[in-house]
Amino acid sequence: MGAGEQEHAAGAGFQWDFVTPGLPDSVFEGAPGFSPTPMELRVMLLAHLRPRTHSVVWDVGGGTGALALEIARLMPAGEVHTLERDPEAIELLECNRRRFGIPNLHIHAGQAPQDLGLLPPHPDRVLLEVGRPLAAVLQAVWTALQPGGRLVISTTSLEGLVDATDTLSQLKARDVQVVQATVHRMQRRGSQARLAAAEPLFVIAAERLG
After folding, report:
1. Over the stretch 48-72, which tens digit does the pLDDT of each residue have?
2. Which pLDDT belongs to residue 37?
3. Contact at 8 Å (CB) between 43 and 21?
4. What is the pLDDT of residues 1-60, one digit of tens each?
5. Domain limits of the chain?
């Protein structure tokens, strides 16, 4: 266990002493039914999002906040605004935000598309996490996105993938990229070791024309 993880286990604020993203999954507060996006997938999503030093980022569907926290700590001069509808997830978001001492992560209770007006206008980066077809949400988010901005969608469903790519085509998105990612991690049971797979994730990235 590293020094930062020891501090977390002891109840103190967590400290990450490295220049890389990829906070260990174990440092995030969790609850039954909620788990952070695996570290390897967070790093991939961050790489596709490409936030700038002063970016204004929307995280629509924040969940436990693992990815929003990763983004916010990498760009302290910018802002991350996360929209989440589940009260338990919001409680975890607040807990993790305090744990990491991240002042530029702002949490908004609501759901897309009807509550997108709670977020500051004209973000230059948007992260959209969905588990179902999302055409209406995607069109609303795209309208708000700054020209030249980047959108990254993550979904575990084939319906979400098809809906996203079809809608981005209609919106004339630029540089659309689609990646299917699966993380396998070694697990030990006694003297035996095996690779266990996390749920596959589709990552769809695109830019809005200037």
Report:
1. 999 999 999 999 987 778 899 999 9
2. 81
3. yes
4. 444 444 443 345 667 777 778 888 878 776 656 677 888 889 999 999 999 999 999 999
5. 39-207
The answer to whether 180 and 153 are in contact (CB under 8 A) is: no
Structure tokens at 37: 């996006």
Q: How far apart are CA 50 and CA 179, in angstroms?
A: 16
Q: What is the residue whose two structure tokens read 């980022």?
A: 57
Q: Is the pLDDT of residue 129 over 70?
A: yes
CA distances from 210 to 124, 126, 170, 198, 207 (A): 11, 16, 16, 37, 9
Task: Encode 71-104: b = buried (16+ Cβ within 10 Å), e = exposed.
Answer: bbbbbeebbbbbbbebeebbbbbebbbebbebeb
| Token pair listed for 195 | 């690779």
- In CATH, which of 3.90.70.10, 3.40.50.150, 3.40.50.2300, 3.30.200.20 is domain 39-207? 3.40.50.150
Predicted TM-score (pTM) of the model is: 0.85
Could you identify the residue written with the tokens 């929209």? 83
